[in-house]
């Protein structure tokens, strides 16, 4: 069998609920030159039957004898992949029909870029929002200081980049393995997100980010610390704790602490934009949600918090949706209660 251009890597563990739709979305791609590598990680539900039902020769079904966990299964998939490109796909998401065609075309036109994701729709039980991730390499490198600017299910990577550098997922970063992986990959190649919505991502109570939030947060803290060191920033313990609290929407240092948070963000912007060669204005809007999350925790104190928010260039550059939402919170003296509430406007 000739080498496919893409290996679509889909790890599955007890994923029968959404698996049929996820596989169908891959098989319905307008770009046809791929293999779909499904690795069943010791499922005890109907995963095997569903994956076998399609009878499509492009499906390559492997099974772990025992449940190895996501990281080991992903690494096994990277070892088994035959394609020029490797595309990630989860068993509960939906790829739009043009996804692979757009990403392969983009990578063919930009041979210096080793990995690319896309914008996507985030679907939950109560709403659907469009996530517009940073597009260019410099902005992506900067945002890696805070969080993962890629959604795993949108990613396509050049297999040669991984093989040349021996890059694999690291079990020491369990539940934040994607964040750690993309941070390390971004040090070896240029990166991008295509500014087009090409996937629907399901956010539900069974997802890893919901089930293992605390463990994920602790592992992500270690990635953030490494990114700050790579930036050349000699941060104190208090500054690292402040940074992690902002990134996780867990800021609790009070109104006086907001001035420290504002100064920290401005310091990062100054250093990061100079290091990555990007204009400050290009990064303000991406940081607005973190600044909103911090200020919103104290909006019961009234419009003084609104003025603190607007005193930062990050606040002044925020989209009007963010600005008006915080203004109303301050006017009504209604604070953000749950950290997750700050994640979207």
Overview of the molecule:
- This protein is α/β, with parallel strands linked by helices and 345 residues long.
- The protein folds into two domains: 6-211, Spore Coat Polysaccharide Biosynthesis Protein SpsA, Chain A; 232-342, no CATH class.
- The chain is built from 15 helices and nine strands.
- The protein has helices spanning 16-27, 47-53, 70-80, 99-109, 137-143, 159-165, 177-185, 208-211, 213-230, 237-247, 254-276, 281-296, 303-310, 313-317, 320-332, and strands at 6-12, 34-40, 59-63, 85-88, 94-95, 113-123, 128-131, 156-158, 190-202.
- Strands 1, 2, 3, 4, 5, 6, 7, 8 and 9 form a nine-stranded mixed beta sheet that branches.
- Helix 1 links the parallel strand 1 and strand 2.
- The longest helix is centred in the last third of the chain and has 23 residues, at 254-276.
- The chain is globular.
- Residues 340-345 have low confidence and may be disordered.
CATH class of the largest domain: Alpha Beta
Residues in β-strands, percent: 15-25%
- Do you know the CATH architecture of the largest domain? Alpha-Beta Complex
Strand tally is: 9
- The overall pLDDT average reads 92
Structural class category: alpha/beta
Fold topology:
Layout: E1 6-12, H1 16-27, E2 34-40, H2 47-53, E3 59-63, H3 70-80, E4 85-88, E5 94-95, H4 99-109, E6 113-123, E7 128-131, H5 137-143, E8 156-158, H6 159-165, H7 177-185, E9 190-202, H8 208-211, H9 213-230, H10 237-247, H11 254-276, H12 281-296, H13 303-310, H14 313-317, H15 320-332
């Amino acid at each position: 069998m000739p080498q496919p251009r893409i290996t679509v890597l889909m790890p599955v563990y007890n994923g029968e609920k959404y698996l049929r739709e996820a596989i169908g979305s891959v098989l319905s791609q307008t770009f046809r030159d791929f293999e779909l590598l499904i690795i069943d990680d010791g499922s005890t539900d109907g995963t095997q039957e569903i994956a076998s039902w399609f009878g499509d020769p492009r499906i390559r079904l492997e099974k772990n004898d025992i449940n190895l966990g996501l990281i080991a299964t992903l690494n096994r998939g990277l070892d088994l992949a035959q394609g020029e490109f490797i595309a990630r796909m989860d068993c509960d998401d939906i790829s739009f029909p043009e996804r692979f065609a757009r990403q392969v075309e983009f990578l063919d036109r930009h041979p210096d870029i080793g990995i690319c994701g896309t914008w996507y729709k985030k679907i939950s039980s109560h709403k659907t929002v469009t996530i517009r991730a940073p597009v260019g390499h410099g902005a992506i490198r900067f945002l890696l200081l805070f969080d993962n600017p890629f959604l795993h299910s949108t990613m396509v990577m050049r297999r040669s980049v991984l093989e040349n550098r021996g890059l694999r997922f690291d079990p020491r970063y369990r539940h934040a393995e994607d964040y750690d992986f993309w941070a390390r990959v971004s040090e070896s190649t240029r990166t991008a997100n295509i500014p087009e919505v090409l996937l629907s991502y399901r956010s539900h109570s069974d997802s890893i980010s919901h089930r293992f939030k605390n463990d994920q947060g602790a592992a992500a803290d270690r990635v953030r610390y490494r990114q700050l060191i790579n930036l050349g920033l000699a941060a104190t313990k208090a500054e690292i704790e402040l940074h992690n609290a902002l990134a996780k929407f867990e800021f609790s240092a009070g109104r006086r602490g907001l001035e420290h948070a504002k100064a920290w963000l401005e310091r990062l912007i100054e250093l990061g934009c100079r290091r990555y060669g990007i204009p400050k204005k290009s990064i303000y809007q991406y940081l607005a949600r973190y600044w909103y999350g911090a200020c919103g925790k104290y909006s019961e104190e009234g419009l003084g918090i609104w003025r603190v928010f607007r005193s930062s260039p990050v606040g002044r550059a925020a989209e009007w949706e963010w600005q008006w939402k915080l203004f109303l919170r301050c006017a009504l003296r209604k604070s953000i209660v749950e950290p997750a509430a700050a994640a979207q406007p």
